Amino acid sequence: MTLANYQLSLNFEQILALVKQLPYPEKLQLCQELEKEVLNSKLTVLTEALEDIGMENAIKEDENTETVSRDRIFQILKQQP
How far is residue 59's CA from residue 9's CA, in Å, rounded to a whole number? Predict the structure, then answer.
């Protein structure tokens, strides 16, 4: 027996009707998979928000940093042992 993959176009109501036909253990398994999916999605959004905040803070910090000439940098480097 060979297995084949098929793609079906189902709306929410059709999917819900199929889920309602599942035995309880499979419903529970489906629930756990959906929870993982939602959690991963929320973590992705949180990670992106934290990266944006970090970038914004870095830009603000850069705006408050004194500009130093190239010659001044080399002077400082020469002074160090």
Answer: 46
Task: Please give the Cα distance from 36 to 40 (Å, whole number).
Answer: 6
Q: In 3-state terms, the chain is what percent helix, strand and coil (to 5)?
A: 75, 0, 25
The CA distance from 15 to 28, in Å, is: 16
pLDDT score for 81: 67
Q: Per-block average pLDDT, block size 10, for the chain (81 residues)?
A: 83 94 95 92 91 89 81 84 67
User: In this structure, what is the dihedral angle of CA atoms 48, 52, 55, 59, given to the nearest 10 degrees?
Assistant: 170
